Amino acid sequence: MTVRARGGRRRERLSRDERVADIMRAARAIFCEKGYAETSTAQIAEEAGVVEGTLYRYFPTKRDLLIKVVEAFYENIFADYERQLQGVRGTWNRLRFLIWKHLSVIHGDPAMCRLIVHELRPWPQYRQSSVFRLNQRYTRRTLAVIKEGVARGEFQAKIPLQIVRDMIFGCAEHHTWAYLRGEGQFSPDEAADAITNLIYQGLARVGRRPEASVAVSVVRLEQAVQRLEGLSAPRRRQRSGAA
Amino acid sequence: MTVRARGGRRRERLSRDERVADIMRAARAIFCEKGYAETSTAQIAEEAGVVEGTLYRYFPTKRDLLIKVVEAFYENIFADYERQLQGVRGTWNRLRFLIWKHLSVIHGDPAMCRLIVHELRPWPQYRQSSVFRLNQRYTRRTLAVIKEGVARGEFQAKIPLQIVRDMIFGCAEHHTWAYLRGEGQFSPDEAADAITNLIYQGLARVGRRPEASVAVSVVRLEQAVQRLEGLSAPRRRQRSGAA
DNA sequence: AAGACTAATGAGTAATGCTCAGCATGTCTA
DNA sequence: TAGACATGCTGAGCATTACTCATTAGTCTT
Fold first, then answer.
1. Mean pLDDT in runs of 10 for chain A (243 residues)?
2. CA separation for the pair B47, B43 (Å, rounded)
3. Which nt has its C1' nearest the CA of A13?
4. Please, where are the H alpha helices in A9-90?
5. Which residue is nearest to nucleotide D25 (CA to C1')?
6. Dihedral pair phi/psi, residue B109, rounded to 5°
């Protein structure tokens, strides 16, 4: 049976896993609410229902605690990433899916993403952290899709892959910047369309020369497809701009 | 005449401007070398040849000191920006110049840029700071050049301007990320070429030259077909996996 | 030279990340 | 059921750090 300690706190002995889970839950909540620097270990301890010293039994430093919290978030995000991508066909669609997914994660948990982008990533040791490696896995999928596009002959053969990757993720980051800070809105759907279209046209192969009459047919075909889309699916806005 | 104070420090009275300059010089050096969090006010004071209390006569907080240091840097950078741009003709060239200039600034003073990007910008009050406004001025020049391209008929009429801006600066930021941390290299020239080309083709109007028009139409047809594929094959944008 | 103004000092404070010796609690043994 | 053991947990305490303020002392005016 448990009794109250001097201060009135109930001293409970939990298993390591339970206590760790409690602390991480508390840490995540307060980190997300106030940011890393403005969160004190005392606050986390209180929220977790323990005393400061207890944190340090399970996490060597406050920074380590943040890393563990972020890791848990990433693991969760990635769980069914690959599987979902399997179901998407075509370079444009696959590209669009990856970009949309990325934006959706940000849209779904801006506080957590702010923590990652603004607080964890700038640290000197970031590139040695497991979170960095998780992130690499993530961006490599995007590069793979670009390479598929090249292999299919849709994209130019010589593409600056790193630049394209940086363009996609850098754009996503800047675009969602205000939103991350609770100072604006953005639409993952619209942004994903715009980014995908820009990147796609930017990479597209040029120089095939069908006859001029083909162009007209293409437009009509495209219109037909759009009508089809309108019939069979919830509409997605199309940015590429009709001629 | 000056005499030595107890601790052996020479007590000198400088004018406000001289003292402020000394402190900012010292602060900039140590902030750049160690980063904001790892720099203590005591270190700055020592480097500036004063005592901690003196810092607080001129700068209300350590954070304010950083902001002033960054402001000074920005002012210096912008000094002949506009003038240089005047001398560059043509949309592609102007775009390339702005991107190249941006990358060159990063290349020229990575420590300072790291401070801005990784330490100052993530702060909650950043958007209220003068540095934010300086930065706006900076990115607006780029948008103006894009608009010029539209006006000249080189670019499509409907362009998601914000996205393009985010793409340029986001890409530059991600691309120079490792370099900022002293963990890699990059070439402002090569990167500027690659980014400019991608953006330029991504925005280019279709249909000016017949052959290009057809090529782009084919690309659009491919996109349309792929969208169809996406609709009939396992669905995109659904969590539940295959339909 | 005296007085006034204020730059500069340095001791001090509150807050915070982190440590550690020891206590108390759940479990195991007899 | 009672005692012993292993260890989860505590809370006082330490070192560091951003920041304050009463006091000291250059320098300028008259």
1. 40 83 96 96 95 95 96 88 88 94 96 96 92 91 95 94 97 97 95 96 72 51 60 48 36
2. 6
3. D8
4. 16-34, 41-48, 52-58, 62-78, 81-86
5. B11
6. -145, 70
User: Rounded distance, CA B231 to CA B243, Å?
Assistant: 10
Q: What is the DSSP letter of B117?
A: I
Residues B164, A215: C-beta atoms closer than 8 Å:
no
Which strand C nucleotides have any atom less than 7 A from protein CB atoms? 7-12, 15-21, 24-26
pLDDT for B22 beyond 90:
yes
Residue of chain A minimizing CA distance to B160? A194
Among A201, A198, A204, residue whose Cα is nearest residue A156: A204
Residues 6+ apart with CB under 8 A from B217: A214, A215, A218, A219, A243, B206
Helix (H/G/I), strand (E/B), else coil: A4: strand
Contact residues, chain B, for A236 at CB < 8 Å = 237
| Angle (deg, nearest 10), helices A188-203 and A91-108 | 140
